[in-house]
Every structure is written in structure tokens, then in C-alpha cells.
Known about the structure:
CATH architecture of the largest domain: 3-Layer(bba) Sandwich
CATH superfamily of the largest domain: FAD/NAD(P)-binding domain
Shape: globular
Number of strands: 22
Strand order of the largest sheet: 9-3-2-13-20
Distance between the termini: 32 Å
Oligomer: single chain
Amino acid sequence: MTTKDFDVVIVGSGLAGLTAAMHLAPTKRVAVITKRSLSDGSSGWAQGGIAAVMAEDDSFQSHVDDTLVAGAGLSQLDATRFVVEHAPETIDWLVEMGVPFSQEGGHLHLTREGGHSARRIVHVTDATGAAVQQTLIQHVKNTPNITVFEQHTLVDLITTRKLGMSPDEPQRCLGLYALDDIADEVVTFRAPQTIVATGGAGKVYLYTTNPDTATGDGIAAAWRAGCRVTNMEFIQFHPTCLYHPHVKSFLITEAVRGEGGKLLLPDGTRFMPQHDKREELAPRDIVARAIDFEMKKHGIDCVYLDISHQPAEFIKEHFPNIYARCLQLGIDITKQPIPVVPAAHYTCGGIHTDLQGRTDLAGLHAIGETAYTGLHGANRLASNSLVECMVFARSASNDILSQRLPVPPALPGWDESRVTDADEAVVISHNWDELRRFMWDYVGIVRTNKRLERAAHRIRLLQAEIQEFYANFHVTRDLLELRNLVTVADLIVKSAQARHESRGLHFSRDYPQLADDTHPTILAPT
């Protein structure tokens, strides 16, 4: 069995992971592990932009206030201020790295999105995530101290408790096991510091804007290793995912509504004014529930987002990728409305961390969408995600750089002596499909106690089947992802059952009122 030694092992190659790698690389030997290619994470799919106070008529306090309002009383003030006040320096860093942000009059062009009281969204037309990701990937590839391991899937974190070491001492992460999909073997990575930056868990739902990589790997692994998770009931459903039989997961950015796009019923009637005074610029949870309500009320498959009243050149300049993709499908958005539906988009909860990205386990940091930092509360404000990735990537890196790294003990290789190759792979695909369908039906935009209990019952059955598979058969990426998705589904359901109110992204028909409880939902492993 192969063992690889590094100072820091980073799992995940999105904006959080790559930013951390670049900050650490000058003095540390860094491994970046990604289960597909470097560019296949969720960050590259982000269209809208990065929220930061860059205009003279804007202020940190305004950005903080907007975030707190969107977070529906659950955003932590210290975390919110920390991110907002460090956001501009992250933009400056990206400019230094060569990200080609959109300009206007020699200055960064700032757009506005739902929930923001000012124009503060720095962007690269309508493909910000892809531009930032590609820029950082080139830097990472050209940095000698960074070694990239593509096609490597996280199996589990290695802890002192897992190895039966020092039961009376504080537990510590010593590295991890990862499945090398090409060699079809499990590799041991040994490191005094590990960073989990594996993104969210949108694939736990049938409809999502997330790529196939969003299977909650880091959240599930940290939970198994003994870390707390927080606010997993708050899954953000993006209001506007393209509805088309030949396309899945194509997001229609919030900036379309920010630049005047209107939501319409099939007969052309606007409906957002009846749901919120902010109309199309209301926070995402409100807009998603409004669309869900109208679709069920009228028995329709989708609603429509219309930006065609804007000049054609304006649309092509600001939304070139959306314009081109829709045109390929026969939809000219300069003349026609776009069919849209809500879809699972962002995991607001995650591994519980502090302002340095530290988890409950020494030697383990969590950053990006996989972490709960306290910023998002019960709902994420648009374009606060990419900036959170960078602020906490830098913070976690600085924390690691300030420490004297211990030398980890020798680690055992992965034991496959008692497993065989599975002869019923259909069980995995069937369970995967069943999980995503009942999570969509029972734990979606609107929930009830009965639906949650039905989901919990099915999760218990799936957990037993999957654990039997995991214990007896050679691990595969599909099996590992399914195991993680079921764990995350269980955490979402348990968190939803614990919140007896409707707040932000969690709406329950049994508890439709807002309660006085402004505490996060914290789950701790037994």
C-alpha cells in the first residue's frame, strides 16, 4: 500500500481549496486531492459574482446588515463582520492573480443581486466562478510546492481515535485515505494538517444546480471523525434553474433579476409583487417558495424569467453565456422569457468551525461550502459564498502557518483483506435514485413532520444496506458518494426535525410561525 507525506493535505479543488493551496505553498508541501479533474467543482459553475464593498457610496455596515437580514436572525455577527471587512482584500488579491473582472470606465463593474441594498457584486460577465477557477488552476499548476492528485476520492479521515491511540488525549487528524480511481487502490495520505474543502451536498436532491461532485464527502467524513455539524436544515434552493428536457443543472444567475428580469406565469402575469414588497429582488428563499407556491397552485411545470425588455446588446454583453446556451436550445432571451424552476443550490450548514476554519478535531480545518462559519445563518445572501471561500481559506492558512507542525506517527495502509468485488452494482444505483427522489419529495422547499419521518424511516433502511455493502465489498467512487449522501441526508432530516419553526430556508407547514429561538441547530456525534 502507498503512503504519501505532505505538510498539508487539501481535499477539494474549488475556490476555497485552491486559494488555501496558494497561500500555503510558499513554505509548505501541499497536496490537493480532487475526485475528478481540477476544474470539476462547484466554484466553476458560479455565475453571478463576488460580494465586496468596493464603491464609495457603499459601506461595510450596509453589507453586514443585508447579510443579517437574509440570514433571518441566525447569521453570527462576528463571522459576518469578519467576512465583510476582509472581502475587498480578497478582490485585490484576485486582481493581482490576473482574474479578468468586468470593467466600466476603468473601474471594476459592480452589479446588484437580490437582497443587496447596493451594487457590490464584482464579476466576470456571467461566468465569474469559471474565470476565477481557471486563473487559480494555472497558478496552482505552476507552483512547485503543490502536488495535485486528480481522480482521488476521499474515503475517510484518519484520526488518533480511529487508530486506537491515546484515548485520554485530545483527538487529532493525522491524514486520510483516498481511492485512486485510475489505479483502483486506496492510498494513505499522511499530514499534520488537513483541510476539507469538498463543497456542498446538492446531489442529495433530485433537482440541483450543482455538479455531480457535490455529494457532501467532507461533511460526512468529518461527522464520522467526531466533528459537530450545524444548521444542516438550511438548504438553499435557487429560484431559477433552466427548465428544459435536454439540460440539467444550468443555473440562471440572480443577476438577471438584479438587472430587471421579471418572473411571470405562463400567461405573462407577474406574481412576485403579491409575495414580497421587494418583488424579484427578495432573498432567494422567498422567491423559491413563491415559485413553488405558484407552480402548485396553477398546476404548471415551470414559471418564466423575462429580461427581453432590456436592449439586446445589453443582454448579450452582461449575460453572454446564458444567452448562448439558451440560444442553442432555441430560446432567444432577447425576445423570449426563460423557463425556470427552483433547484437545490447551496448547503448553508456544514462542519462547525471558528473564524480560523478550525473544527472540533485538532489538525483538521474546514473551509468553503462544506463548513459552517456562522456567516449564512438561515439563508445565504447572493454572492456571499465565493468571498467566504477566500476569506476563510486565507484565515485557515494563516492559522496553519502560525503553528509548529507535529510529525504524525506511521499510519497503517487500507485493509482490503476481507472484501470482494461487488456483483450487484445495481443496488448502489437504485439506492442513489431512491434517496434523491424521497429527499426531493419529503425534505424539499416545504416540509411537514410526516414527510420528515417518512424520509427518516427510508434513510435508516438505506443506511443498513449501504453499511453492509461498504463492509463486505471493494470500495468504489459510487459507493463512497452514496454512503456520504445518506449520511448528509440523515443530518438534514435530524436538523429539520429539531427546528420547530419556519425560518429562512426551512419552512414547515406544522410550524409556520417564526419562533423566538435564534440558536443554530448543532448536532454532535455520539
